[in-house]
Amino acid sequence: QVSSLTLNDGNSIPPIGLGVFQIPDERTADVVGTAVEAGYRLIDTAAVYGNELGVGKGLADSGVAREEISVVTKVWNDDQGYDETLRAFETSAGLLGLEYVDLYLIHWPRPRLDRYVATWRALEKLKADGRVGSIGVSNFGREEITRLLDECDVPPAVNQIELHPGLPRTELREFHAQHGIATQAWSPLGRGQGFLEHPAITEIARDHGRTPAQVVLRWHSQLGVVPLPKSVSPTRLRGNLDIFGFQLSGAEMDRLTEIGTDFRVGPDPALFFDVS
Ligand code: A2P
């Protein structure tokens, strides 16, 4: 693998990771074990995925030293608020079987609920107490991030968003760069089947003798984005990690970015969970 990414708080994270959304808890330990064996050093889960126990078990069984792995988890919407978040963190850490978590994120902003600033204060406390290494957000937009930057002490280290060539998020990525916020991508493959058959992707893959998934993950990497592809297949897990031995040209990068047609596979943060 290539070098890790340095965050705005001085910590570093691997340049690619495994996302475990929708992997059943009882299957997760095996998948995580295979991934760690293949070389993954970043695992991305969330309280709402219901598989933190499996992630912790997979890591414990892997025999890899704790400090070599970056574990990411997220506080769920129902647990937003200062005290609620501190409690939710203890539950997550308990299920994971970990003393500390490398990166803790607010899963969705829910602006109309207006609790994400209090939630952020709890994340700042967890960081100050050494329970989490870095703190960040997920599915946040420019407005919500600006509010945290204006009202809080610690700026987010990461915003984890839906991002792939169907939804390249160019403006938000530029905003992140201006504020030293790292971009992580969920569903970096546009959920795989169908999307990966787009002609721009398959043609570039053929030209490089690579798989469509490798081309898309390489596109992320060259943009400076940390992709978190999900797979339960050992072959695809290994293939998705093998993206550092080739280079896309500027024209190929542009061609992939221009696929972007507002193709969303997940909920739109502007609408999701905001009606309550
Ligand atoms: P599987 O778990 O059977 O490998 P995303 O991370 O964008 O949400 O995409 C995940 C989806 O893409 C899953 O359905 C996964 O299926 C599939 N996938 C993961 N890696 C590859 C790959 N290298 N080629 C094709 N499909 C893939």
Question: What structural keywords apply?
Answer:
alpha/beta, TIM Barrel, 8-stranded parallel β-sheet, binds adenosine-2'-5'-diphosphate, NADP_OxRdtase_dom, Aldo/keto reductase, NAD(P)_OxRdtase_dom_sf, Aldo/ket_reductase_CS, oxidoreductase activity, acting on the CH-OH group of donors, NAD or NADP as acceptor
Please describe what this structure looks like.
Substrate binds at residue 107. Residues 19-259 form the NADP-dependent oxidoreductase domain. Belongs to the aldo/keto reductase family. The active site is at residue 49. The protein has 276 residues and is an alpha/beta fold. 40% of the residues lie in helices and 14% in strands. The protein has helices spanning 25-38, 52-62, 82-96, 116-128, 142-151, 170-178, 199-208, 212-223, 234-241, 250-257, and strands at residues 5-6, 12-13, 18-19, 42-44, 70-75, 101-106, 132-138, 158-162, 182-186, 226-227. The strands form 2 sheets. An 8-stranded parallel sheet has the order 3-4-5-6-7-8-9-10. The protein starts with a strand and ends in a 19-residue tail after the last helix. The structure holds adenosine-2'-5'-diphosphate. Adenosine-2'-5'-diphosphate (A2P) is lined by residues 19, 187-192, 196, 211, 213, 229-233, 236, 239-240.
